[in-house]
Design brief:
Blueprint: H1 18-57, E1 60-64, E2 73-79, E3 82-88, E4 94-98, E5 109-111, E6 116-119, E7 124-126, E8 133-135, E9 144-150, E10 153-158
Antiparallel strand pairs: 1-10, 2-3, 3-4, 4-9, 5-6, 6-7, 7-8, 9-10
């Protein structure tokens, strides 16, 4: 003789099961890791394209009245869509450098009293005359531009 046991009543309360919850959390963590790996790879691969686009956009900037900039001071200006810095060094020479730190692309500042260019993000320093990285995490020097001083203006050209 065969007896059938009654089925358990439906206990679904509308909340997800433990298995579904674990699957969703695992998928979310996997997407996070994929993003953490994928974004730097994308930036590495896209960097030459972005540099080529920026280089082709603007090749020369004329700054009116910049020749009146006092010795030992600097001014930030836009070179295309990126900040750049024109520096009138204490010795009377002029230099123009990218104002974008080569470490993590923070904007750098000229500190004439310390005779350096400083990135406040991670403490990187550069030589204001050459743009060479002196200390900190920056992996390479700042990009350097050509400077031509004329009466009434200064022209900065991409090297």
């Amino acid at each position: 003789m065969k007896t059938e046991l009654p089925l358990a009543p439906d206990t679904d309360t509308g909340s997800p099961s433990r298995r579904v919850f674990i699957q969703v959390v695992t998928a979310a963590v996997g997407c996070g890791y994929a993003g953490m790996i994928g974004y730097p790879v994308y930036k590495y691969l896209a960097s030459p394209i972005e540099k080529a686009e920026a280089a082709g956009a603007v090749s020369e900037v004329t700054l009116p009245k910049a020749d009146e900039l006092p010795k030992g001071s600097a001014t930030i200006f836009k070179f295309g869509n990126k900040p750049a810095m024109l520096i009138h060094l204490p010795n009377g020479e002029w230099t123009a450098l990218s104002a974008v730190c080569t470490h993590l692309a923070c904007t750098v500042q000229y500190e004439p009293e310390k005779e350096r260019i400083y990135c406040a993000c991670h403490g990187g320093t550069y030589d204001p005359a050459s743009g060479k990285n002196v200390s900190g995490p920056p992996p390479r020097p700042l990009d350097r531009f050509q400077v031509k001083v004329q009466p009434g203006s200064v022209t900065v050209t991409r090297s």
